[in-house]
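Human:
If only I could read backbone structure tokens as easily as an amino acid sequence. I am handing you a single protein, as its sequence and its fold in token form. I hope you can help me see how the letters and the tokens relate. Thank you; the sequence and its tokens follow:
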Amino acid sequence: MTLPDPALFARAFADAWAARDARAMAALFAGDADFLTLTGHWAEGRKAIAEAVAGEMAGAFARAKLVTGRTKARTLAPGVAHVMQRYVLSGILNADGTDAGRVGAILAAVLVEGPEGWQVAAAQFTAEG
């Protein structure tokens, strides 16, 4: 999936999360993209990204919801953009199944423009400390 504008990435990511659709989330990434997930898994390539996200959605994030906060998108060069999105997650499960409470997180992504639109080249999803 490509996007007509890089600023739409954060909303598309949140929509895929809400739908629990790991493939839709991975489709936002280029075929050879890198993604450091919220749990610290480094996934290389769209297939690995889909697998990593699906695993997280089946585990710690099985009930987690994302609430969007501040977004910042800026052009770095022609055809290259950086997007930062603040989210608050709730419903995260600890290993023993108890609720982990609310967590703030930042999703930072570099997107590149191709002939059909924008896709993520690299992204990192990190808990705020």
